Protein N-acetyltransferase, RimJ/RimL family (Amycolatopsis pretoriensis), 300 residues
Amino acid sequence: MTDLVIRPLEAGEEALFTSLPDRGLVGRKLFGNDFTEMAAKGEYRPGWVWVALRDDVVVARAAWWGTPKDETPIALDWFDFTDFDAGVELLKKVPLRAEYALNTPPAWQDDPDVKHEVTIRVEAAEKAGYRKLVERYRFCWTPENGLPEKPGRLEFRPEPDDDVFLDVFKRVHVGSLDAHVRKTIEEHGLDAAAREDLDIMLWMPAPRDWWRLAYTPDGELVGLTLPSRNAYDPVVGYIAVVPEQRGKGYAYDLLVEATHDLVGYGAEQIVAGTDVGNVPMAKAFAKAGYPVTQHRIDLV
């Protein structure tokens, strides 16, 4: 067998990356994203995009994504191959460490072809040293889904002090069902988990003054609701309830408030996500008219 050549893509070699046959079942192509266009925007860059070749033919490829302002990639979100072993070796050799975000259609397990494509990617990543952390729902609200009525049970207040939000993040992270939060707490502690999520929210390209804290009419803190934007869409950036207020359905109130706020800021669609295992939050999204449009498997 011809020796495998693994190397980063050089500027101007976008056609080499796209020369690998695209099976169109999982990954960015399914959702309309174009590699060449994203590379031109600086979201895929030389050093972040790698190929594995045999006889000058691409047999595996991987692209790490970030916004143009990021110094290091945020996630591996494009990985496929025609040669399983080449895919494994590619991930092993590339000196980049970021979470692998594998996008799939909803109910991907029900379609044998899609299930195969997902499974072989996960198996290759695991053989290269990744491990599956969680599967997540991706929701997308549009006006056709209807704007949910505000329950009117809570008061929402702006808070300009980041340290106050940091303290609230610490409170809502206690007993969290979010796999990423639980992982960070286990590895680095509660303070680090709170700081990580605050920094992510500050990184997002949306006005900081959109954020709100939620209170009962008696002035008791309920949680936080942080409407925001990512690189492409308006998003429900973060909503969470403090432990002592859980079990009252307040996550729905927080979600509805964020939805109304984003619509007021001009959103024509709103993207959101939660872990498949976070049943209360998933139910809140369903109640508020957010259909599941995608799944994502996160490997670390």
